[in-house]
Specification:
Radius of gyration of chain B: 15 Å
Structural class of chain A: alpha/beta
Shape of chain B: globular
Strand order of the largest sheet of chain B: 2-1-3-4-13-12-11-8-9
Order of helices and strands of chain A: EEEHHEHEHEHHEEEHEHEHEH
Largest sheet of chain A: 8 strands, parallel, barrel
Number of strands of chain B: 13
Strand content of chain A: 25-35%
Oligomer: heterodimer
Strand order of the largest sheet of chain A: 1-4-5-6-7-10-11-12
Largest interface: A-B, 49 and 45 residues
Number of helices of chain A: 10
Largest sheet of chain B: 9 strands, mixed
Number of helices of chain B: 6
Number of strands of chain A: 12
Distance between the termini of chain A: 35 Å
Strand content of chain B: 25-35%
Radius of gyration of chain A: 17 Å
Shape of chain A: globular
């Protein structure tokens, strides 16, 4: 039986790792900082997938970002999705060659539908993750693009339908309203949206503790939960979170510790 | 030396990272001559069957791959790479495959509206026959899948299955020709062990 997934998302800007709240960014540290404060092997051991996003506002340096992806992917033997500012097939190829297995696409879903279709044709739908960011307005969710700064003029269900129609193999939905608040995810709404979604759906925005992750992963129509909350999940926290979910009766994938084998 | 065929599809870097971590020297190759000279071959792949066969044909390596397989060179197809071992792929129209395992690559069917496609995530792999590829790995261990197509091939070639609504081929073996639908390079410790088992096979 296919297992649900626990995902960690790194938010990167100019080589620095960021904390986000309602899509306002705060610098935490660079790769060296991450290495010092995280047992990276322990993190890699306790999550099903890693997402790395370039959240820079303004002109991005794709090569520099690809360098971060390359570094992080060297000892990660699980799937890695990378994105942020992908605007061409070449951009996507650069990230894939740097160690990404999947490409995350957001703004182009709404501004360059042809790009999404080309990426799907070139790399396959299972390689393309459509990222949709939204703010709640009453019962509905309104989509925002360009790092959450510009309204797309579409609701989440319509955006989800559009992304699937264009061939995306997976959706990644983030509540800007809940992002970084630690109040828990927007599950009722997301479950409802997910009922009409035919591809796997990752939900994100608002996880502050184990219970939030556990609840999200059990929600209907949810394939995976992602958190980008750097501080709440340092040291052993992710491993503990994973165990907590399993102890709560939700089966997740299990695997042994990595053992290095010298030839 | 493990030779990874780079035909422009699939994430060869992940496979290289895994082999580097395990300590096996590896290279990326693209020509018939290099395939002929290799001791062990890996054919990765993500994307469309048709485009993959187009690329392999353009590189003029289809014959060399078939020859290497006949000559007994250990050969591992991963994900699309395994599906290419079929006689043909059916992506809304039939396209000839490498024909090393047989059968047809076709769309995954779940027969369950609640199950999403692509089949994306970790799932149990259950053995149907003993295989040295899974030495030291418990039956029903979790491996990572990301696909919308499956290989429907002669049962005697199947060594492991997985279930997503319906059972489908998770791994195949026919002497020196092997394949995995899952991504061993993305399957944490089990996947690394699987790759190690492949790499430890004596070269012919």
């Amino acid at each position: 039986m296919l297992k649900k997934r626990l995902i960690f998302t790194f938010l990167v800007q100019d080589g620095r790792f960021m904390l986000s709240r309602n899509f306002s960014l705060q610098t935490v540290g660079d790769l060296q900082w991450v290495r010092q404060h995280y047992d990276f092997e322990a993190i890699a051991f306790s999550i099903d997938e890693l997402v790395i996003l370039d959240v820079k506002r303004g002109v991005r340096d794709l090569e520099a970002f690809a360098g971060i992806v390359r570094e992080l992917s060297k000892t990660c033997f699980m799937p890695i999705a990378a994105g942020g500012g992908v605007r061409s097939v070449d951009d996507a190829r650069t990230l894939l060659k740097s160690g990404a297995d999947k490409i995350v696409i957001n703004t182009p879903i709404f501004t360059d539908a042809d790009l999404l279709q080309r990426l799907v044709r070139r790399f396959g739908s299972q390689c393309i993750v459509a990222s949709i960011d939204y703010r709640r307005t009453g019962d509905e969710g309104e989509v925002f693009i360009e790092n959450g700064t510009r309204p797309a003029g579409m609701t989440v269900p319509d955006a989800a339908a559009r992304a699937q129609q264009l061939g995306a193999g997976e959706l990644y939905l983030t509540s800007i309203t809940r992002d970084g608040t630690g109040q828990g995810l927007d599950l009722d709404y997301l479950s409802r949206v997910g009922a009409a979604v035919a591809v796997p759906m990752i939900v994100s925005g608002g996880a502050g503790n184990f219970a939030h992750l556990s609840k999200a992963i059990q929600a209907g129509n949810v394939a995976a939960v992602s958190t980008a909350n750097l501080f709440n999940f340092m040291a052993d926290s992710l491993t503990d979170a994973r165990q907590h979910i399993i102890d709560g009766g939700v089966p997740l994938a299990t695997w042994g510790r990595m053992e290095r084998v010298a030839e | 030396m493990i030779s990874i065929i780079d035909y422009g599809m699939g994430n060869v870097r992940s496979v290289q990272n895994a082999l580097d971590y395990l300590g096996y020297s590896n290279e990326l190759i693209q020509t018939a001559a290099e395939i002929k000279a290799s001791e062990k071959l890996i054919l990765p792949g993500v994307g469309s069957f048709t485009e993959a066969m187009d690329n392999l044909s353009r590189l003029d390596v289809v014959g060399a791959i078939r020859d290497a397989a006949s000559a007994g060179t250990p050969f591992l197809g991963i994900c699309l790479g395994m599906q290419l071992l079929a006689d043909q792929g059916d992506e809304g129209g039939l396209r000839e495959g490498l024909g090393l395992i047989g059968g047809t690559a076709k769309r995954l069917e779940t027969r369950d509206a609640d199950l999403k496609v692509p089949h994306m995530g970790f799932n149990e792999v259950t053995y149907t026959k003993p295989s040295d590829l899974f030495a030291g790995i418990d039956d029903a261990s979790h491996f990572y899948f990301a696909h919308s197509y499956v290989l429907d091939c002669p049962r005697e070639r199947v060594v492991a299955i997985a279930v997503h609504g319906l059972p489908f081929t998770a791994a195949v073996q026919r002497d020196n020709v092997m394949g995995s639908q899952f991504h061993p390079e993305k399957s944490q410790s089990h996947g690394l062990r699987f790759l190690q088992n492949f790499c430890e096979r004596p070269a012919c």
